[in-house]
Amino acid sequence: MKFSLNWLKQHLDTNASAEQIVDQLNKLGMEVEEFEDGAKALENVVVGKIISRVQHPNADTLGVCQVQVGENDIRQIVCGAPNARDGLTVAAALEGACLPGDFKISKSKLRGEVSNGMLCSVRELAIGDEYDGIWELDTDLPIGTPIAQLIDNTDAMIDVDITPNRSDVLSVRGIARDLAAADMGTLKPIAEKDYSAGFAQEKSVTLDNNDCTFFSSIEITGVKNEQSPAWLVEFLEKAGLRPINTIADVTNFVMLSLGQPLHAYDADKVKGNITVSTSKGDEKLEGLDGSTHSLKEGAITINDESGIIGLGGIVGGESTSVDENTTRIILEAAHFNKTTIALTGQALQVNTDARYRFERGVDPLMTRIALSNAAEIISELCGGEVSSMQTVGSDEYKPKVIEFDVRKMKTFAGVDVDENEAITILCKLGYNCTKAADFTYNVTAPSFVNICHNFADLVEEVLRIKGFDSIPVILPAPSLRTVTDWDDITLINRRSRKNLVALGYTELLNYSFISPKLTAAFSDTIENLILANPISEELSHMRQTLIPGLAESLVKNVKRGHANLMFAEVGKVFAEKGEKLQAAAIRMGLKAEKSWNNEAQVASVFDIKSDLFKFLESLDVEVDKVMIKDAGFAKYYHPGRSGVLMYKGKQIAQFGEIHPFVAKKMFLKAGTVAFEVDLELLLNDKKSNNDFSISQYQAVKRDFAFILDQKVKAADVLQTVKSACRPLAKATSIFDLYEGEEIGEGKKSLAISVTLQSDEKTLKDEEINAVAEKAVNAVIKRFKATIR
Amino acid sequence: MQNIEQLKNSALELVQNSTDVKQLDEVRVKFLGKNGEITSILKTLGKLAPEERKTVAQTTNEAKNAVFAAIEAKKAELELAALEEKLATEKLDITLPETPYNLGKRHPVSFVIEELETIFAKLGFSVASANEIENEHFNFTALNIPAEHPARQDHDTFYFNDFEEFNGEKQRKLLRTQTSNTQIHAMQAKGAPLRIIAPGRVYRCDSDLTHTPQFHQIEGIALDKDITFSHLKGVLQVFLSQYFERDVKLRFRPSYFPFTEPGTEVDIECVFCEGKGCRVCKKTGFIEVLGAGMVHENVLAAGGIDSKEFQGFAFGVGVERLAMLKYGINDLRMFFDSQTEFMKHFGKNL
Ligand SMILES: [Zn+2]
Hints:
The complex is a heterodimer of chains A (788) and B (350). By secondary structure, chain A is an alpha+beta fold. Helices cover 25% and strands 29% of the residues of chain A. Chain A is built from 19 helices and 42 strands. In chain A, a hairpin with a 3-residue loop joins strand 22 and strand 23. The longest helix of chain A is centred in the C-terminal third of the chain and has 19 residues, at 765-783. Chain B is α+β, with helices and mostly antiparallel strands and 350 residues long. Chain B folds into 2 domains: 2-89, Up-down Bundle (Methane Monooxygenase Hydroxylase, Chain G, domain 1); 106-349, Bira Bifunctional Protein, Domain 2 (BirA Bifunctional Protein, domain 2, 2-Layer Sandwich), CATH 3.30.930.10. In chain B, the strands form 2 sheets. Chain B has a 7-stranded mixed beta sheet, with helices on both faces. A 3-stranded antiparallel beta sheet of chain B has the order 2-4-3. Chain B has 12 helices and 10 strands. In chain B, helix 1 packs parallel to helix 4 and helix 5 (108-122) packs across helix 11. Helix content of chain B is 42%, strand content 21%. The interface between A and B is large, with 102 and 88 residues. Bound molecules: zinc ion. Zinc ion binds next to loops of chain B.
């Protein structure tokens, strides 16, 4: 809500400065978003006289002026105005001035000539619109007089943000009323002109819709609807409204002044009488806003005998609009149900000042005042004869009685307020308070307060006036619940982020939505994961895995010259039914940057597998219980270079090379590897405290090499060796893999090392040999292997 | 006897003059070897008269020990010299670059969330979470924002063409616009008394220089029999001071959120100009950081809490904003742009 200080002062009698008012507005809950103080903008701007003007040596359009700004104070000012001439009395902005638009004046050089200020036009001082050169002042004005003294009412512009609960301050008068309650001045009385002696209106109004509870109207005949006078244009422009014609402008002016939306019909365009009724749907209205609205069932319609001529409380119709030929009008000030207005406005997506006010709430007791006020101004500006006021329905205000225990100020807000003080504040704000019992009052809200349901609303009202600063700052006592319990998902979320970073990955936060193209490349398109109103198509499908976003991040960084990258993310992924927390990592390029002592090694699927296992181990997964399967992974993984991990019967992770086809489609480097872990499957995986012991006896190593069929899986061979050597096998590893001519086609050689150790004794050679033989025989038997 | 003394001195001299371990060994053999000169004397002791034997034995043994000790000392000296000579030839150019190593960086937003979780843990707040795809009930209706409420439109909500049954009504699905949905879920799950915070992603259909369609919030709620507005002030004062690592000056302004009453907006004294007024704070000296208030009784009711028995406060704070203010990040959009350079500069170490 934008208004000028002078407009405010039509309703508020105050000596407060603009700055004090701005400060108080903030304290009252009207956040000041913009404030331009006209008086301040004229500081350090004084009356001066051009003693001489000579042509600037380096610029044809500039002149170098010697300007007298005080008795013995002559300053050189460079000026480009064509009317700058010897002997002219001017407005000179001196060093330290700050003109409207935050334009600071300081000593400078213009094309090599020193300039100690600026000669101003009225427009530059924001006191007028003319811009044909600098302001020419009366020659008899004393030199050095501050310009502010010449302007009787320097104005200030204030723009406040009004929260949806404060419909009472959606008008200049409402703001004045609130400031007056906070002792910032006195609210001026408002006169309601009595039109009861006027002629009777030609048209009748019928209410055929309960959502319109009150409809008041005045007819004015013989008006001349021309352009508004300058003062009105200025008020509206400062409030951010475009002037249209006098009648339309007055309705807007009164709405902004008093908060009641008004509408003017060209009475000669209205066919027959007026009825307020309900839309049955499938009806159309050509609106004043220039668009055609398709009405939904339930909208409040204003009708004449030809059909719909307006959407009550939202927008008027084009067919009955006032224009420069209008001579007879019907002025309407009515009351509409705020819920219906809100729902209709949302459905039609029409944003008007009327809707804005009606859906927040309009003061029922202001309706008649606003109507007669508007009629008075119109008849003053446009001439014409005013009818008597015609009303249908009721504007009676029936407030809800709230029981208010003033001790709530202490027990709810924590602030010590004297009983009298609290009640005095409420009364100043227009509340009616009657004592019902000790400390307890029956309170009713004034008609302009829209939201007042319970004691908390009253506590807020008292606090607003007393100031939130009066509330003490106290820490709550520790409660028995002070023991912090972070839920499991929070814990695994935090640990995952840190542990991935510990593994060398940089943590990213990608968008939760991706493009349809990317979705199609990685997953099936799921209808209920598509946003109905996305920012753009690129951000329209909820991600089903973190991998596409990570892959896209790689591509983006490669484009900027990066080559070896490790990215990870922990975040929600979405499925047809529900969402879950996933951790994922992706890497491409070299394992480490190429260096003088470092062979360039490309990160492979076994590197990502290693990262995956280290990551799982860091989350306390018992990795020796993890089983690997080489099938069952998503289609965006390489069919031969990928796998899934099974843990306690659940598929917890998948990893592998990104499918070359997918990689190519998104310009991702072939060989990029990734993993993803379903973190929610790792919840409640409580590890038992296993017995801990260190064997006192020596460990020995035995190495074997087997020739096996190529299809035999390494994990199976290791498992066989391990079980054969149980319980002595402490560790196994594969230290060589060979495939080649030497051992024949379709075969491979695996060299396995097993570490044997007993917890009870030093192993004798015979025992070791026996175990080793058992292992060898088991492998030979199970895989038809031969010893190499 | 004199003989022995001479023998010892000549041995010690030879030890001193040895220049390598090999020479030293020769000296050892010559005097202390099986047939060494000192050893030989000891072998002949038996032939001597008993009195003489005793003194000769003593002198000879002393000589033997002295020579042995001298050899050991010289040996250590020579070995050290040899090692030093060898090491002198092994000098590397230690200014060559170190072996490359990948060091990961934490995203500043997730880092700040953790900082805040830690601060609130000290104040007795647990952490809770909720879904990002919500329905209208939990994102709006339960938070005292019915369908016709003007605030619904201000939220720039992302919707799905998908509905679910809830409370016997068809509820449209949406991306939550605020972490406040967690308030309701936490109240329903844990009841009162309650002290939780809930960090998480939220979404608004808005994108420009200062808005991204996704961002993060932390929601907080404290309910008990006697929690007041002044406790809200206390908790926020501690939280913001701890986070900014200084005694932050706060300003509470009346404001409005449908789920609170009274509601407040909280400003901190500008961290860039210390309240003097600058570009960042638009010359006001204050920067808005969060919204808060006493939980509305309708919200308590939606969470299944008896407002006659329990009351309390709630607040919501934008994580990106806090991160930008503390760590000097000036472009919101960079948080979700995945640029290596940004992460190297603003990413946090473990
Ligand atoms: Zn500042």
